[in-house]
Design a protein that fits this description.
This protein is an alpha+beta fold. 27% of the residues lie in helices and 28% in strands.
């Protein structure tokens, strides 16, 4: 069970919750899924050269991992987004919003000068929990 704790700051910035609490009764333990940083790379190793296409692939990769764990986007409790260019925020958020819909996990977006491979514009890591 996930409980959102909001103090109101998140609503002034974007579509996320200020904090998420995961409660796990002894009779119904919670399963956790932690992903590594997931870039916008396809299974053949192809890397698009724009943020929208990379974000689309990254989120597709994330949703595939959730599906394999018998979870869904609504089970995400924390997202950390890494972008290499501040100018990509608006285009990235459009893609992210389409994938997460009404879910409001805790969220952190960082602008970093580079990611592990040249050309990576985005990496996403999530934590999900499901009873």
């Amino acid at each position: 069970m996930h409980l959102a704790h909001n103090i109101g700051i998140a609503s002034q910035i974007g579509k996320y919750s200020d904090a998420i609490e995961v409660c796990s009764p002894v009779s119904n333990p919670v399963r956790w899924l932690y992903t590594s940083g997931t870039p916008g790379l396809d299974k053949e190793g192809n890397l698009p050269n724009n943020i929208s296409a990379q974000a689309e692939l990254a989120w597709s990769n994330i949703t595939s991992m959730l599906t394999q764990a018998d979870m869904a986007v609504g089970d995400i409790v924390k997202i950390t987004h890494y972008l290499t260019r501040e100018t990509d925020i608006a285009d990235y958020v459009k893609v992210r919003s389409r994938f997460i819909g009404d879910a409001r996990p805790a969220s952190m977006l960082l602008i970093t000068p580079a990611l592990v491979k040249p050309g990576f514009l985005v990496e996403i890591e999530i934590i999900a929990a499901k009873a």
